[in-house]
Amino acid sequence: MAVDKQKALLFGGAAALRLLLFTVFPGLPSLLAGRVEVSTPVTSFKRLQEGLFLYTHNVSPYDGGLYHQAPLLLPLFSLLPNPSHHPFATNLVFVVVDLLSAYALAQVAQSGTAAVSRLFSSSRRDLRWSSAAIAAGFLYNPFTVLTCLARSTSALTNLFILTAMAKASQGASITFTLALSFAAYLGMHPILLFPPLLILLYDARAAKSKTAPSAWSFTITHTLGLTAVSGGLLVASALLTGSWDFLAATYGVRLLLSDLTPNVGLWWYFFIEMFDSFREFFLGVFWLHAASYMPGLTIRLHKQPLFVACTLTGIFAVFIPYPSIADAALYLSLVPLFRHLFPLMRYTFLASAAVLYASFLGPAFYHLWIYAGSGNANFFYAITLVWSLGLSVIVGDSLFAALRDELDVERPELKGKEVRRI
Amino acid sequence: MALISSILALRRDARILKIPPYLSALCIVIGIAWLLVLPLNEYSRNTYVSENALLPGQVHTYFTGSEHNVFRAYRQEVHAMIDRPVEERSQRLGDIFRSNNLKVATQKYSYHVSNRTIANENVYAILQGPRADATEAIVLIGAWKNMDDEVNNSGVALVLTLARYFKRWSLWSKDIIFLVSGDSTTGPQAWVDAYHDGHDERYVESLKIKSGALQAAVAVDYPAGPWGHRYDKLHVLYDGVNGQLPNLDLFNTAVQIASSQMGIGCAIQRMFDHRDSYKERLQTMLRGMVSQGLGHATGPHSSFIPYHVDAITLSTVGDGWHDEMSLGKTIESLFRSLNNLLEHLHQSFFFYLLIQANRFISIGTYLPSAMLIAVNFSITSIALWVASGRSTEPIPNPASTAPPKDDSAAKKDIAALSTESRQPEMELVEQDDHKALVPKASTAITERHLLFPLLSVLTIHFLGLIPLYMFNTWGAENLSRLYLTFANGTTLLPLVIAWFLSELRPLSTQEVTLIQCFSLLLLGMILAALATLNFSQSFLIGVLATPLSFVRKTNKTWLTAIQLGFLAVLNPVMVAQWSAKLLGADLQEVLVLAAQGWHVWGLWTQVTVWLIWFPAWVLGSVVVAGGVMEGGLVG
Question: Domain of life here (chain B) (predicted)?
Fold first, then answer.
């Protein structure tokens, strides 16, 4: 009972904080929706409004060339009253989305799959935070709050990713397939989470039933299921907009980076500077690089599938074409699940200081570049490099810790000794 | 790899914890010394014009002869308007512009700040450049009243004369806007806000006519009466709101034209008698830094700079032999140079410190000093973070042969105790080929409880909103009383908070360390970010906050008292008091001006003070005051 009260307080507090901020600072959402750190061309609420306007006036939402988000968001948001006059309903939707995400994250934490999976059990598994603490880490993370206030649609993508993780760790096949299809439909890159989460799902199912299901038929069924649901979503989108144009406007933009608005990622600056003749080649290289982590990590760390999925979200936060602080918020709230790895991590202070410094210096340098006119694009880009460095140090450090943790289990005699790579 | 692991091993060395305070102090000393050597020839450079389109002083000026008669007539006209109501004044000014075939419009503004109303009217006229396509414009400003609240009689007359004179030239390739603003700070702000549609229509009227993108603005301040006054020097004002500066090229062009072409000396930062000695250079730089650090408007030009319109004010000072025509010629030549511009001023520096009218220090040279000051906080914060992870139990000396003190109970059993149980637990540390036995407590890392320290730091910073709100919204008549209450209240605040904490929730040593750690981390980070936006502000606040790196909670009452006394002097509220006295300003006026700055100019200084500096001070003082509770009253 006490735990429930605590959770109610936690969720109620988070909702109250968000609604308070929405009410006390009515100009804040629109200000944040215009910030490049929070809203990217593929998640911005302002662009969603533009798409909505065209959609409700029976024009193809992709005709304006501004809207790059999934078509199915349109009927959903057109049900709500116009956010520029009556923002409350829309705000409430985003608050609920955050609460549901936190709930899913709490479920992931509850399942305990972070430290103990079917094939692996960490020697430090007793070191963990309660699911309420981890949900609090998500709900009160300033980056999450800012994303919610900016009403960026990446909040929805995050919700589906977290739900997919929760359902996979509970062994719920159908909801997992649905959630991951939605995540992939909205954000495209979450499709890369399928293999590690499938392993997670398999482990959960194998733990539930006495006999482990056949791996091949399991994989084939779920792949077919994912294809079917995703296909269904795409067909529904095509029926809704009346053509297949949305594919080029949504996934095409993500793949080919046709909108070079600055963001916290690494792509935009490169592709602004690049000669056109090299563009295709480097698009291939960048995508290959971003996607190549998935197979490697999944194979090497197949005993800890949840850790692979979490690390991949960290890699997405750095290496996808349009990252925002929402992606970093997702990763940073997943990291506390691996509390048992913290004693093995070596650069926590360095990495968190880099991330914090970047979050202060980023807006300052953007101001110097865009508003004061006394700086230039290099200022902001330098800071996004520091930001990415901070995140990738956390990713690298936690990977080291996870490998070290595995080593401690495999070779207990080496525990506590300095390892040296030869 | 080997290097990294040896660095990591070094981290476990207990001695390393003793270094940071000295390192912090070294950063501060170097940071301040760095600033002090800047005025030397080795670290400063002569100014130069880098935009080659400007060609300062390359044109012959024709503003002479009969224009002088016109000027004298306008001066009398303007003088006759002084006691007239605002509407009539605007009407008459408009008529003069109109008689010269210029498009004229007016703009009313009325701000409500600290229970006072600031209302007046701007009059402006647009000269459409014969070779221009209305995409670019330059502005000539003559504020009706200057910063000292004198009527800018000759300045406005000069603007009118130049409007008549410029209209007859066919060479303008940019529009020229002549603006007679109601006052020196609020009027130009209202005008430039409305020009960029950034105004609040409840207080400021929209502009009826506009021209193209503003390229530069020059304001004239020449308060001589109807019979004229010969001046000695031009005082060039260049600080913008929030410490932003105009492009150095504009400043250089003005100085070069005035001193080389017209032979008028130029002064900056009220250093009217600059003999180019080290002391005077330093004084000029420090005055510039204080002005930049406060971020207030210093003239009609200040409001333009946040909109990325480079602007300066030329103000006449002293008694000499230069007359109004040489000022007019200077402006003519300056406008001819600006007329040559092919693109927005961008070549030269936006970040600089001037030590003389023709010598400057560039950002690369001076920035490290503020960064070093900011880094000192980060270093202490890292040290505190490491310290918070160490066990709080005293590390026994393993080599000691003396039995533990005051163990009367233990003495009885001493024979029964095995010797090793009295020995501290030892651990083998290996590095490269060296091995050492050290007490376990000196390398063990204890669990940190972050939640309470984090929440208290955030809460105190959030509570800074209260004074920010009160000082900006209360009526002018109550501000001094509010200030007095605050000065007394905040001096006692740390003790009160410490007392409450000791009663309700005594803090562990680790929590105290972590509170200080987070507070300093935040301070260091924000000051580093601020140094890139407003160097002087970051440096000044950094220097005034340096004691926060060194104060610690202690059980010695006298040490606590000294620390608290020292901190009380450096309380931001107290600093406002004594620095106002030092700079010869009236505190009441400063408070009113600050509120005006917040509402009208978009001043950010208060945010830095109330949400960053003040909370950091409160947290540091609470940490120290905790020692009083333990050492004195409670313990």
Answer: Eukaryota
